[in-house]
Write a structure and sequence with these properties.
about 525 residues; alpha+beta; five-stranded antiparallel sheet; 11 helices; about 15% strand
């Protein structure tokens, strides 16, 4: 059927052929002016097969075409648009008029006033075509007006607007930024002990010695560039020469040999503050253990015991694993953990004994807690198939009431170590160990858990404001007793009335004395000065 239609001549208008629009909205036939064809009768016979709308029938697109016609016929003529009034200030460059009609769609026109800020009006023409430059001043401040309709869009900045006060450009800084007032503390607050002087302290970011006063604005560079960061450096030492060991972590234990040893940190630092009480604690692996790749065998604990309130206690504990015991690093950790659990279960009774100053009652309670710790520690060793002697460790603890009205402190210990009192600049090294002769000699004979089931317990005399109580292992107590330089150094650092920062405390604790290379652990309590 398609071939017969093509042979008969032109057919009715298809969507691809132009159509003649008639005033009444209908469509005329294409081809001849009168819309007829020579083979009209033949074409009408095939009308049921391909029917096109007849001119006498209503066109379904009439409504659409009428709306489009009305849109174009209702637009104002270009010459009918009223030109904007010229600005009061003559333009400084070639002026450009905004287009009379800035429509953004078939039925939407651009708003005549597009405010972009509280007091600034957007220019009437915001279309920036390829041949139009944006105005050079695009700052929309709270008091700056947009350029007038005929403002110049030349690259030259526009002149001052009438009635608008012009502010002179401000520099990046109105004045030189003040240099930091932070002055890092000297590497040691104890003058005369600086065997190894640290880097010279001066204000971070401030000019170095000999430079003149800063003038003009600060240079445009990162703040960290050229800044001197204060460092403490290597720990100080007694004597004219430092020990042979390097004062830094060295060889580490192997995970394959002992995972627990490999996961024991080289050093730890801790602290706490409760009202008038301030605590600093640190434990450092000894030089000999670092050199041989052995773990730190000392442990510490700073724990709060009891229910919340004034009846609570502060537990300060240190433990020193016996060097000849293969698993003593585990024994010291377990001793601190088990002591915290067992003493907490007796905290109410211990607090009452300290409040009333009942020495016999306190001794019984301390023996009970230590006996449980020893039993549980031996049980732990057997559970892992180890000899309980392999977990041998010492234990020393202080119990401090959190009630500021109770000034008595409780002490208990199994094995050696030290408990010292620093009061008014003087050391008392035999506070809990009267038999200590203070010669600093190393004694390898000591009682130890888990075989020792009895504790040495006593109540310490009432603490005074400004007292510094030191609980430590023999890695500190022995050189402290045998070296006057260490006593002077730590006495100057810890006896100033305030506790040092944790990092400073860790650095001070590492004061080095030749021939003393064991682990060193201390928990220090500062009683607030009046």
């Amino acid at each position: 059927m398609g071939n017969d239609m093509n042979a008969a001549g032109p057919s009715r208008t298809s969507p691809r052929e132009p159509a003649t629009r008639e005033p009444d909205g209908g469509r005329a036939r294409a081809g001849r002016p009168d819309g007829g064809r020579p083979d009209e009768g033949r074409a009408e016979a095939r009308q049921p097969d391909l029917r096109w709308p007849d001119a006498r029938e209503p066109d379904p697109l009439d409504a659409t075409w009428q709306s489009v016609d009305q849109f174009f016929t209702d637009q104002p003529e270009p010459d009918a648009v009223t030109a904007p009034e010229p600005s009061a200030t003559p333009p400084t460059g070639p002026t450009r008029q905004s287009p009379p009609d800035a429509s953004y769609g078939p039925t939407r026109q651009s708003p005549p006033d597009a405010s972009y800020g509280p007091t600034r009006q957007a220019p009437p023409d915001t279309s920036y075509g390829p041949d139009r430059q944006a105005p050079p001043d695009t700052s929309y401040g709270p008091t700056r007006q947009a350029p007038p309709p005929e403002a110049s869009y030349d690259t030259t900045p526009p002149g001052p607007l009438p009635g608008l006060a012009q502010q002179p450009p401000r520099p990046r800084f109105e004045k030189s930024p003040p240099s930091s007032s932070y002055e890092p503390a000297p590497a040691s607050p104890m003058p005369g002990f600086a065997r190894q002087a640290p880097s010279p302290p001066h204000a971070c970011g401030s000019p170095g010695p000999g430079s003149g006063p800063a003038t003009g604005p600060a240079p445009e560079q990162p703040a960290a560039r050229g800044m001197t960061v204060p460092t403490l450096g290597a720990p100080f030492h007694s004597g004219p020469k430092p020990p042979l060991y390097a004062p830094e972590p060295l060889e580490l234990p192997s995970v394959r040999q002992d995972p627990t040893a490999a996961l024991t940190p080289d050093m730890v630092v801790d602290g706490a503050g409760y009202g008038a009480l301030t605590v600093r604690a640190a434990s450092v692996r000894g030089d000999s253990h670092r050199y041989q790749g052995e773990p730190r065998q000392d442990s510490l604990a700073v724990v709060r015991l009891g229910a919340p309130g004034a009846d609570g206690l502060l537990l300060l504990a240190v433990a020193d694993g016996v060097g000849s015991a293969a698993r003593s690093h585990i024994g010291s950790q377990e001793a601190c953990r088990l002591a915290a659990i067992e003493l907490d279960s007796l905290s109410a009774e211990l607090s009452e004994a300290l409040r009333s100053g009942d020495q016999p009652r306190f001794t019984v309670l301390a023996d009970t807690a230590v006996g449980r710790v020893a039993t549980l520690l031996a049980h732990r060793a057997r559970e892992h198939g180890d000899d309980p002697a392999a977990y041998a460790t010492t234990l020393r603890a202080l119990l401090v009431p959190l009630d500021p009205r109770v000034r008595t402190r409780g002490f208990l210990a199994v094995g050696d170590g030290g408990t010292a009192l620093l009061r008014d600049g003087s050391w008392n090294l035999s506070l809990t160990d009267p038999e200590h002769d203070g010669d600093g000699m190393i004694d390898t004979r000591t009682a130890a858990l888990p075989h020792g089931h009895r504790a040495r317990a006593r109540l310490l005399a009432p603490a005074l404001p400004g007292d510094v109580l030191v609980l430590c292992t023999d890695g500190l107590s022995t050189p402290l007793a045998g070296d006057a330089g260490m006593r002077d150094f730590l006495g100057s650092g810890w006896g100033r009335g305030t506790a040092p920062a944790p990092a400073d405390f860790l650095w001070q604790l590492q004061y080095r004395v030749k021939s003393y290379d064991d682990d060193r652990t201390a928990v220090v309590l500062w009683e607030a000065a009046p």
